[in-house]
Task: inverse folding
């Protein structure tokens, strides 16, 4: 085992847990970075709440007016190191940005719980890459990606605006996003109680060095790679169906058009 990883294991675990935790790090080292691509996912709060199966569980903080981060996920890998905890101190200085750009949208789960889940499931797998190899660096890098992939601006430039009355074609949404997201990304929808297709998520694939266009297909990805909000699944927007881009409502997040 490499000396740095062994040192991390010892420092993290202490004497009582050194053997188990060292073994966890050894297993992570053996399988680390076997993944080729990662997915950067952004979610639209207006549709997320409207399509949630338990709508009363949804909350959109007052400061949220734009697309927010869902996560940065190495593809087909999850939970790579159970002994690498994350603490609030790891996010010191980042929390104001994270609260604005990567907030929880579920009342029963705090921001910190959401961020811990993302680190434990996905960050520990991304940590084999330089620049993502600590909780602080993982969240810093993801925030930088959010600044680069400005979906709100891309849609605004294409005159695509949130509305209750107008629908959009998937081809038009794709054309608006292609200049910033390349040619390998997925626009996801979810149906509301009325059966309408709501624009809810954008998934952009990239290589470990953040180059766009990675297309590494493997069967049977874990369910939470599709969405970590299990009762709000996304699916590729049907090409021939009209898509609603609903506005955000802080007072009535589940019924923004009522």
Result:
């Amino acid at each position: 085992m490499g000396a740095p990883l062994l040192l991390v294991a010892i420092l993290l675990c202490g004497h009582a847990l050194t053997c188990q935790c060292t073994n966890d790090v050894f297993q992570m080292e053996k399988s680390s970075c076997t993944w080729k691509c990662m997915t950067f996912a952004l979610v639209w709060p207006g549709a997320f709440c409207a399509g949630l199966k338990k709508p009363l569980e949804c909350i959109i903080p007052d400061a949220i007016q734009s697309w927010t981060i869902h996560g940065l996920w190495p593809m087909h890998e999850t939970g790579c190191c159970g002994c690498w905890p994350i603490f609030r101190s790891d996010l010191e200085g980042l929390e104001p940005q994270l609260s604005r750009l990567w907030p929880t949208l579920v009342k029963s789960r705090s921001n910190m719980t959401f961020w811990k889940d993302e680190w434990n499931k996905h960050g520990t797998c991304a940590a084999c890459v330089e620049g993502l190899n600590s909780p602080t660096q993982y969240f810093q890098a993801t925030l930088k990606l959010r600044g680069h992939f400005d979906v709100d601006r891309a849609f605004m430039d294409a005159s695509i605006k949130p509305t209750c009355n107008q629908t959009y074609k998937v081809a038009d949404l794709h054309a608006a996003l292609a200049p910033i997201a390349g040619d390998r990304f997925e626009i996801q929808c979810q149906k509301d109680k009325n059966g309408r297709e709501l624009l809810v998520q954008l998934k952009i694939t990239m290589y470990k060095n953040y180059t766009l266009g990675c297309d590494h297909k493997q069967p049977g990805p874990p369910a939470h790679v599709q969405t970590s909000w299990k009762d709000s699944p996304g699916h590729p927007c049907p090409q021939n169906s009209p898509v609603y881009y609903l506005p955000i409502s802080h007072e009535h997040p589940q019924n923004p058009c009522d």
Notes: The CA atoms of residues 140 and 204 lie 18 Å apart. The chain is about 35% helix and 15% strand. Residues 1-30, 218-228 have pLDDT under 50 and may be disordered.
